[in-house]
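Quick one:
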Amino acid sequence: MVTLEKMTITEVLKRSVNLFAGKVALSGIDGNAVSYNELNNKVEKISNFLKDQGIVSGDRVAILSENSPNWGISYLAITTMGAVAVPIMTEFQSADVHHILRHSGSKAIFISAKLYEKVEEFVSENLNTFILIDDFSIIPHSKSTDLISTTLKEGKREFAKILDAALKFVGVKNEEVDEDDLAAIVYTSGTTGHSKGVMLTHKNIVFDAIATSDFVGVTETDRMLSQLPLAHTMECTLGLIFPIMVGVSVFYLEKPPTAAILLPALKKVKPTIMISVPLIIEKIYKMKILPEINRKALTRNLYKVPVLRKKINKVAGKKLLDTFGGDLRMFCIGGAALAPDVENFLGEAKFPYAVGYGLTETAPLVTGTDNFKVRFGAAGTVLYGMEVKIVDPDTTTGEGEVYIKGPNVMKGYYKDPDKTKEVLTEDGWFKSGDLGFMDKEGYLFLKGRSKNVIIGSNGKNIYPEEIESVINENSFVLESLVYASAGKIIARIHLNYEELDEELGLKDVNESEARKKVDNLLNEILMMVNKRVSTFSKLNKVIEQPEPFEKTPTKKIKRYLYT
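Output:
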């Protein structure tokens, strides 16, 4: 386990520079590599640059950019000088970005040229400094070029620096970064439509990274391909802070992970470790592997025989590993539940997957395993130094709400004490809102979100996520959403239209005949599901969802838009 004198991001960087100085720390796919020594120098340079702009410890500094080594440099520069990083999801609309900048009171922002239009019209007396993250140059903000305005802002900067220096001189303010100092305010993507600013301290983030290092054997010989947005805590902690802590070389995919972008990157980097949300591996299975198996009548029929299916999956698993570069030894999945049929494939394919569970509020990882201790359907066991308990468990099933406690649990929601009190108990337990149970060996099994639960007419709990996992096993289904309306259980289903065209020949028939074929398929799915689920969980209706569901930046369906 990694040991530090103090659990701060500053200490993480200092230790790693001493241990891994000449090794590549961060890099793009096609170059722009930065060694640990160079990383430290760049971070120090940008920190001093921020100080020259009047940023002092405790000030909030936003980052709105695609993934790149400069994203990591910006984040480290902000946090190691004692300021507070405010990462913003690139997918957020301008109005959401403006809200976050105002609510956080950010005084500076690192922003990419591509995303500058989202703040071009933004005006605030707090936000004085716009920095182009591509080359760390100052952007003359069109709304802030007035001479009087500029003079006032210069005065404020100087006053801020003088005040900060005075407070440090008299001992009111500590020059060093402490464990309990705020490191980041992360605004959640809000599947309920409401974005909250999660306050994470240095200790929250660093402790989570240390706890992760305790159960996964990751070393300086590893290469990580990072594909998820760094603005999300999962990627920021596990794809930036954790790998830096243990000397990993991280290669950032600077564009969304489409096949055209991801496949060449995998061949170049040959990663040994990757972090992913379920949707990515589920799409690969549904759109690449299954169609290949179903293309020939022989393999399609053989796949129905369990013994032969395992052999076919094993062959497919080897091909999949080759696609991932050939050196992959751990594919970590988190952020949402993994579909059972996909997990079954990964297990039979001998693909080295691992599963973890956590939330932004827990910095994020709470439970997990390495790729050797995975248990089907489980989210892993509790990490070092953390506690999980099931509150108000059902006497029959043992299912209840998951409560979490540990040094990784957030400080609270920024400027929202009421919501903080709703989720944090007086003795430090965080109410996750997730429902689940723990087996005798300490593995956590999640059933769904408490806010999504449907109460049946008999009073029993119906978990939409469980029904969705059954629906999604159909090879023609890409994604689904189950909800209750007027006392009936309804499923919206988004189909794999490419596969439908090929298998059912929709392009070769008229519109009426095509509609009939799709309706027949939806009816078949309804009957299949109702044979598999409990009597009180049966579907009353299935609706076609022609367009993909709108999702959060972490690829979760925005349920509130459809229910």
